[in-house]
Design brief:
- This protein is an alpha+beta fold.
- Helix content is 18%, strand content 31%.
- The protein is built from four helices and 14 strands.
- The strands form five sheets. Strands 2-3-7-12-1-14 form a six-stranded antiparallel β-sheet.
- The radius of gyration is 18 Å and the shape is globular.
- The protein starts with a strand and ends with a strand.
């Protein structure tokens, strides 16, 4: 089974993540999430009544969401189940995780734009020394934490994240007001990327 998701997570993986219960209540209060449901044995949430306000789908993407069934967005031609959008909160992890999918675009140095083609080796080096590792750019010699590279929204690093399942690459993005709402509620900035596994 192929997984396509929009992942929303704190911009700084070192920042203290929100308490899961408070985060879940916030998403419910603003209407992003609806009732709890089971997804392949894991707790998930159906999309809420304001989901389309907070998550903006592109107009030209072939996947459309013309119908609702009990508040759940149903993709065109689908009868619910694994094809519907749903939301999962991935709880706090004590260490930063690299969320690596199958469609990663080679990252680039934010200082000079140098493209790192051997990023797998860099990730392996980081796994070996997560506390002290910094990637040295071969072009400009700037030193960067792995999450400070430009991954072109195809990879992320975090200890806590929100996953919106069944969203293809660049099919949707969080509205600015949604990211602002998270910052206002929890005091940290948020970002997003697309995950395919």
């Amino acid at each position: 089974m192929s997984v396509h998701s929009l992942i929303i997570l704190p911009n700084d993986p070192l920042a203290d993540p929100p308490e899961t219960g408070a985060f879940q209540r916030h998403l419910s209060r603003i209407g992003l999430t609806g009732e709890a449901c089971d997804f392949l044995g894991q707790k998930a949430f159906r999309t809420g009544t304001a989901f389309e306000k907070w998550i903006r789908f592109s107009d030209d993407h072939p996947k459309e969401f013309p119908a609702r069934d009990q508040g759940v967005l149903i993709p065109a031609g689908a009868a619910g189940g694994l094809d519907e959008c749903h939301v999962q909160i991935h709880d706090y992890s004590p260490r930063i995780e690299a969320l690596l999918g199958g469609d990663i675009i080679n990252p680039s140095c934010p200082a000079c734009g140098y493209i790192l083609t051997e990023w797998g080796d860099m990730i392996a080096d980081w796994f070996g020394d997560r506390r002290r590792y910094r990637w040295p750019c071969r072009h400009c010699s700037a030193m960067h934490l792995p999450w400070n590279l430009d991954w072109h929204r195809t990879c992320g690093f975090g200890r806590f994240f929100l996953e919106i399942r069944n969203v293809d690459y660049k099919e949707a993005e969080p509205a600015d007001k949604f990211l602002e709402s998270l910052k206002s509620a929890f005091g940290i900035s948020w970002t997003y990327f697309f995950y395919h596994f």
